């Protein structure tokens, strides 16, 4: 088939299918986000237009926002579908870098197709071309190498024959999933080639379930059988394997208390007898208490980042760590006993080795007992008398009024700790907290993508005023496209959580809250978030108290569904009221600050490398 490079690429995208956990076949690439410029409009843009009824193309307003929306889409579909993003060369391509970092850190697949400069170099330097003095082959797109799981530059049409299988491999492999960048020089996009028809035959990508090595399973089972206080930690890999119910059954059958990481949050029903709560700094005191006493930790589908491990102080120095993970890269960290394989397959095989082994019921009972104490604490925060709502109370309102099939999101700042630690879920996978890269702005762009993908429930995203100002154009993107969600904007006059870190360690208030920022005005202007969101095409509700917040959020839920556009709730929140999980986080504290004493006291308890 004689096609341009761009036409061949689009036809290949259309031929790729994916299988969901319930056996349905869906497009692997369900949507494209595009801002067209001189690097992609005639080549890829023309090819996409030819298939506009088969492959939806959505107009974005920042390249970063489009790629964040695609990332949110991948998370909401449990990595079973992949968004595609195309940009022009230069600033359009560089705007993708931050979003690629989000997808990379969170192990989420997204396909980036930035335009690139001319391979023939005849018109160089072209508009928007970056010219590195030391390397004639480098372009702005090379900045994406560090945040791509796979990077390629297509300099001849026939290179697609070798590149596209690798693209599909990375995007659908549980161990390698992440952003893929195909840089597309604008002259090559328009070049033709006789492509074999076989390239465009339909292919269905099914989740590979790699089974662990028998010797590793035997050693892991021996370690668990010898334990008296084992703990199960469930991460995002359990979610992407579709193994949530299986993990819970494994825990219940053997009596092992269960905790969750940020990416694994809402896998377990909140009231389950083996559930101890979320783990770590942004988690719960209940889970952290059990972690400190555990002698064996079975970590499934998690890379155990510092917020989960409290900078590696949440576990006892004598703990033995077993890491069941699809990626060997993550499984071998920190001296863990590596069990490399799919979460569902690995738990099945490990359970067979354990047979009827069961933990002492007194240890199992600690999960419910400790969680009850944490629940009482969260309840007291939610019911506290306050003229201005706290973050914990905002989360409580959203939690109370949400339905089981709803989807709640946040990213960066103080809200992740409030949502992770305070949410009481029904056991359906219903939460996306972007705290792998902690990207301000993901709350709105990612919500746009999630609203496109999430079936059967309403998406609600919670964000602070700082994140709103960072990346709000996708409110209009979603309103224009007709993808409704609810955004709860908590206005606390600045970057409150960093102000908390700054002052909590003994630093002076500086450039985080607005009163501590340099300005030439005696009375600086304030943002009217309600009017701004309304101007972006949203339905808006304001709240000035807890009772007003409840009414406003209820109305926003209804409005989002009836208007087919985002509904925004704006509420003033307390700037210095936080949910504390009682864990330490390592940050660089200068010796002259008051927080250095706590640093010096906690640092010796940090586990650097666990014994096998």
TrEMBL record:
Gene3D superfamilies: 3.40.50.970, TPP-binding domain (3.40.50.1220). Residues 434-571 form the Thiamine pyrophosphate enzyme TPP-binding domain. GO terms for molecular function: 3D-(3,5/4)-trihydroxycyclohexane-1,2-dione hydrolase activity; acetolactate synthase activity; flavin adenine dinucleotide binding; magnesium ion binding; thiamine pyrophosphate binding. The keyword Hydrolase applies. One of its GO terms (cellular component) is acetolactate synthase complex. Residues 40-126 form the Thiamine pyrophosphate enzyme N-terminal TPP-binding domain. It holds the Pfam family TPP_enzyme_N. Its EC number is 3.7.1.22. NCBIfam families: myo_inos_iolD (TIGR04377). This is 3D-(3,5/4)-trihydroxycyclohexane-1,2-dione acylhydrolase (Decyclizing). It comes from Amycolatopsis jiangsuensis. The lineage of its organism: Bacteria, Bacillati, Actinomycetota, Actinomycetes, Pseudonocardiales.
């Amino acid at each position: 088939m004689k096609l341009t490079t761009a036409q061949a690429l689009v036809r290949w995208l259309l031929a790729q299918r994916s299988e969901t956990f319930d056996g349905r076949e869906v497009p692997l690439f369900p949507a494209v986000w595009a801002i067209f410029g001189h690097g992609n409009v005639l080549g890829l843009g023309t090819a996409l237009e030819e298939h506009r009824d088969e492959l939806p193309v959505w107009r974005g307003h920042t390249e970063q926002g489009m790629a964040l929306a695609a990332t949110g889409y991948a998370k909401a579909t449990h990595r079973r579908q992949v968004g595609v993003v195309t940009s022009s060369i230069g600033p359009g391509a560089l705007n993708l870098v931050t979003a690629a970092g989000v997808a990379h850190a969170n192990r989420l697949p997204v396909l980036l197709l930035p335009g690139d400069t001319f391979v023939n170099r005849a018109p160089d330097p072209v508009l928007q071309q970056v010219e590195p003095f030391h390397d004639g082959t480098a372009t702005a797109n090379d900045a994406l190498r560090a945040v791509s799981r796979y990077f390629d530059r297509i300099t001849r049409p026939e290179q697609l024959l070798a590149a596209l299988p690798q693209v599909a491999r990375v995007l659908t492999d549980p161990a390698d999933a992440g952003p893929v960048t195909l840089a597309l020089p604008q002259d090559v996009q328009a070049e033709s080639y006789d492509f074999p028809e076989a390239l465009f035959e339909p292919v269905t990508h099914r989740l590979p379930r790699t089974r662990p090595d028998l010797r590793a399973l035997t050693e892991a089972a021996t370690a668990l059988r010898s334990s008296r206080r084992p703990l199960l930690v469930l991460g995002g890999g359990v979610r992407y394997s579709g193994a949530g119910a299986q993990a819970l059954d494994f825990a219940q059958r053997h009596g092992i208390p269960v905790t969750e990481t940020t990416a694994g949050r809402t896998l377990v029903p909140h009231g389950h007898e083996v559930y101890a709560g979320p783990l770590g700094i942004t988690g719960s005191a209940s889970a952290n208490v059990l972690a400190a006493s555990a002698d064996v930790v079975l970590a499934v589908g998690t890379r155990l980042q510092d917020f989960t491990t409290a900078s590696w102080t949440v576990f006892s120095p004598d703990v033995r760590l077993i890491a069941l993970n699809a990626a060997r890269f993550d499984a071998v960290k920190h001296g863990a006993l590596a069990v490399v394989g799919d979460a569902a397959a690995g738990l099945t095989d490990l359970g067979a080795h354990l047979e009827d082994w069961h933990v002492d019921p007194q240890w199992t009972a600690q999960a419910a007992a400790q969680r009850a104490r944490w629940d009482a604490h969260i309840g007291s925060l939610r019911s506290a008398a306050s003229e201005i709502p706290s973050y914990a109370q905002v989360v409580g309102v959203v939690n109370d009024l949400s339905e089981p099939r709803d989807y709640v999101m946040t990213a960066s700042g103080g809200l992740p700790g409030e949502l992770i630690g305070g949410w009481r879920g029904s056991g359906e996978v219903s939460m996306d907290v972007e705290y792998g890269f902690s990207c301000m702005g993901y709350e709105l762009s990612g919500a746009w993508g999630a609203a496109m993908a999430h079936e059967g429930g309403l998406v609600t995203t919670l964000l602070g005023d700082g994140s709103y100002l960072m990346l709000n154009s996708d409110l209009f993107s979603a309103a224009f496209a007709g993808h409704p969600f609810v955004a709860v904007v908590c206005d606390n006059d600045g970057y409150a959580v960093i102000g908390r870190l700054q002052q909590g360690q003994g630093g002076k208030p500086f450039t985080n809250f607005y009163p501590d920022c340099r300005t030439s005005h005696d009375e600086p202007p304030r943002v009217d978030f309600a009017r701004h969101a309304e101007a972006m095409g949203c339905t808006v509700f304001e709240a000035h108290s807890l009772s007003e917040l409840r009414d406003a959020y209820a109305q926003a839920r209804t409005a989002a569904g009836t208007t087919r556009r985002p509904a925004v709730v704006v509420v003033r929140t307390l700037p210095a009221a936080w949910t504390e999980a009682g864990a330490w986080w390592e940050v660089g504290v200068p010796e002259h600050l008051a927080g250095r004493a706590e640093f010096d006291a906690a640092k010796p308890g940090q586990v650097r490398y666990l014994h096998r």
